[in-house]
Every structure is written in structure tokens, then in C-alpha cells.
Amino acid sequence: MSVRRKLVTNVLSLSSIQLLNYILPLITLPYLVRILGPNKYGLVMFIQAIAQYFVLLTGYGFNISGPSQIAIKRQDSYELSRVVTSILFSKVLLLLASLIVFCGLVLAVPIVRIHWLLSFGSFGYVVADVAFPIWLLQGIEDMKFITIGNVIAKSLSTLAVFLLIRHQSDYWMVPLIMSVSTILGGGISFGVAFAKHNLRLAKIGLRDIVGQLKDGWLVFVSTISISLYTTSNPVILGMFANTAIVGYYTAAEKLINAGQGLLNAVLQAIYPHVAQLFHSSLEKGLLFIRRVITIIAPSTFAVSLGIIALAKPVIVLILGAEYGPSVGVLRILALLPFLISLSNIFGIQTMLNNGMKRPFTVIISIGAACNLVMSFSLVPFFHQIGTAISVTFSEFVITLTMFLVLQIRGINTFTGKAR
User: Cα 88–89–93 angle (5° rounding)?
Assistant: First the structure.
């Protein structure tokens, strides 16, 4: 298979997976927000946001550090098996540590303890993160074989939502249904990948696991920083407002995530290819980045403008009139697809592939700190609107700073040239 054909196949496969991850939940969203109401829906999102901290821990940046290692060593099945095994065992150890801490959290925090069924159901997302080997399949650039398993799993979860969530009292089952489907899809994906690429669980030592943790440390720190203006937002809202306010914000955010999902899939799928191009030469990598920008930037800007213009009818149609306070949130967050696409190209695709992990981490940390300060300043007075402003402004700061740092380093992603 030619390089171009493989790249297109992987983009389409990963895009279909991500599309299902966002579109199928979007199909259930109008049903869930109406059945649960803003209060219970906000409660589900609040507890889920807490669980996402542990997803960040088990993820540990392996979705970024893993594919680049695998892409380099995929021609040697023995070395590839060692890398895969060391990453997998690292994630399992982090999962066990997460479970211990999470159990302590359930005992210590009243709202988490009261809704313990919802809490442990939400912890299923952590298990699902370990079970789904997106990092492996990105690295070997072979995504098409997991699409069928993912379609089956996501379709079952969608059907289960309509069959099992019938009353507000069924709110605790929502995260359980979603996480079980991902675990099922992950199991199928692992099985197919191991069989097709002759992988096995290799004998590794503590040094291999420590090496993986060291390699992913800076990316992990940046990921934790990212959480301060993504995962933490519902938590901060819940601290200063009621769960209905959390529901207004997270419902609008779900719509943005649905629009962002396909774009993220494309950017994730091209990452190993970009890594190989930059490994070959800076010029080849930058020329490819320039072509990506000329397609992504105008298309995402058009999407952002469309969301701003159609925010009110979209909210009424999908969420219902009860979610009127979400309209302002959606309009402010509408700029995110454009900003996030550029920051991904500047940061993950270009900076990380050119040995700029430290400045990348510093920039993300600056943006996170900006969001944290703005959130605690604005949320007590403006609630969900304050959160939306904080998130969007922080992403703008990150995108602009990444561009300026690349310029200072002599790298121009728009012209595809370096001095």
C-alpha cells in the first residue's frame, strides 16, 4: 500500500471512529438532556469531570508519546512488542493507583459518596482508557480493522441509552453504559492488532516502565495543564453554582466537541506520518504542515462562524427550550474549533516533532494558569458565561504563543520554510 493511500485510509478510519464517538452520543444527547433535566444532567457531567482526572493519569500522554515510538520501531516485531507491553503495563499500574485514590475520594467527598453508583460508573471511563489502544493503532497506522468493533460497541451503547434510561432516577447508568461500550471496542481492537501484527506480551522490567513514564512526563504535565481549562471547568462551576448551571455549560460544550471530534480524528491520524516526515527532514515536515494548514484553517473558521450564527436554533432543536442559557455559551465556545486546530498544528504536530517538548509544556501551563485565574474570577459572577470566556481566551493565548515561539525559532508553518 502506498504512503498516501495508507494515510488516507487511516484518516478515514480514525475519523469514522471519532465521528461515532461524538455523533452517537449527540444522537442520545437530545433524549438525555430532556429525560434527566439540567439538574441531573449537570450532576452526571460534574461527577464525570472528576473521573476524567483519573483518565488523564492513566493516559499519561501515551496517546502522543506512544505513536511516535511505535512508528519508528514497527518494522521490528520484537522491539515493537516491548514498546507496546511497557506502555500497556504502565497504564495498568496507573489504573490500580487511580482506583485506590478514587475509593478514598468516594469516602471523603459527600456529593461523590451520596451518588456512589454514579461515581463508580464514571470510573468506568478510566478502565475504558486503558482498554482502548488508540496509541497503538495510531503508531502502526492501521486503523481500519477496529472500525467494525467500534461501530458495534457504540451502536449497542446508543440503543442501551434509549432502552434503559427512562426516568430521572436512571441517571447513574449513563456513564456505565458509555464506558462498557468503549471497553468492548477496546478489547476487540487489541485482539485484532495483536493478531494482525504478530504482537505478543514481551518480557519487560521495571526499567522499561520507568523509561516510558520518563518519556511521557513532559507531555503528561502539559496534559494535566490542559485539563485546567477543559476537565476542571465543570468542577469549578459546580463549586460556585448548582448542577443545573453545570448542565447548561456542559450541554453546549458537548455540541462543540461533536463538531471538533472529526477534526481531532484527522489530526491524530496524520501525527505518525508527520513524525516520520520531520524525522526524515525539517523541510519535508514543514511542507506537509503548510498543506494541512491551507485546508484546516479556512474550513474550521467557516465552521466557527456557522456555529455563532445558528447557536439559538441549534440549542432549541437539539437541547430544547429549557436550555436557553446554553445559547450564549455556544456562541463563545464557537471559536474553539478554529483555535484548537491551529494550536494542534503549531504545538503537537510541529513543536513536539521537533524536540520542543519543554516550551510546549510551558505554553500549555501558561494557558492553563490563565484559565484558572479567569475562572475563579469570572465564574462566581457570570457562571457558565464566565467559564466559556475563560476557556476561549485561554485557547487564544496558547495558539498565539505557540505561533510566536515557532517564529522565534525560525519556523514558519504558513510558508513551510525554516531559516
Answer: 120
DSSP-derived secondary structure letter, 172: T
What pLDDT, on a 0 to 100 scale, did the predictor assign at position 229?
A: 64
- Interhelix angle 357-408/326-333, rounded to 10 degrees, is 60
Structural contact between residues 384 and 378, judged by C-beta atoms closer than 8 angstroms: no
Of 314, 234, 302, 312, nearest to 29 by C-alpha is 314
Integer Cα distance of 407 and 391 in angstroms: 25
Q: Is the overall model pTM greater than 0.90, yes or no? A: no
* End-to-end CA gap in the chain: 35
pLDDT at 148: 64
pLDDT in tens, 49-87: 999 999 988 988 788 778 878 877 777 778 888 888 899
Integer Cα distance of 100 and 79 in angstroms? 32
What span, in angstroms and rounded, lies between the C-alpha atoms of 411 and 282?
A: 9
